[in-house]
């Protein structure tokens, strides 16, 4: 896909790693121990489909081709998604999003509300902006 072609491969790998470390722990398809695929295989397929802006049916075929291994078919993935409790799944995604947001804010030097930390502003010579934001920080 053109969007993927324009993205630096190293950056894409970092993003995939972040997704796997942050979102995967919150998701479990509760696959029976005798199931052909485990939750990780389903999540890898979902990541591939999302990163390529693809439909599940086509994405499962391209993923199988790229990975050169047996990966879940689209109907198998959709079956497991449908049998998941939607409210629980939504809550898990919300938790994962919040965790990613916290990690992102921390990485760029913002506090939990998305306000740049004083140290970051001063490091960039923005003491005047820091003084203005002090009032905002105090309004907790």
Describe the structure.
Helices cover 67% and strands 0% of the residues. The protein starts with a helix and ends with a helix. It has 140 residues and is mostly helical. The chain contains 8 helices and no strands. It has helices at 2-5, 9-22, 39-51, 56-67, 74-83, 86-108, 118-123, 127-138. Helix 3 (39-51) crosses helix 4 and helix 4 (56-67) packs across helix 5.
| Beta-strand segment tally | 0
* Regions with little confidence, pLDDT below 50 for 5+ residues: none
Radius of gyration: 20 Å
Task: Please provide the ordered H/E string of secondary-structure elements.
Answer: HHHHHHHH
Q: Percent of residues in helical segments?
A: 55-70%
Structural class: mainly alpha
Distance between the termini: 44 Å
Shape: elongated
- Quickly count the helices: 8
Mean pLDDT: 80
Largest sheet properties:
none
Strand fraction band? under 5%
List the helices and strands and how they pair.
Blueprint: H1 2-5, H2 9-22, H3 39-51, H4 56-67, H5 74-83, H6 86-108, H7 118-123, H8 127-138
Helix pairs in contact: 3-4, 4-5
Quick description:
This protein is mostly helical and 140 residues long.
Please supply descriptive tags for the structure shown above.
single chain; 140 residues; mainly alpha; 8 helices; 0% strand; elongated
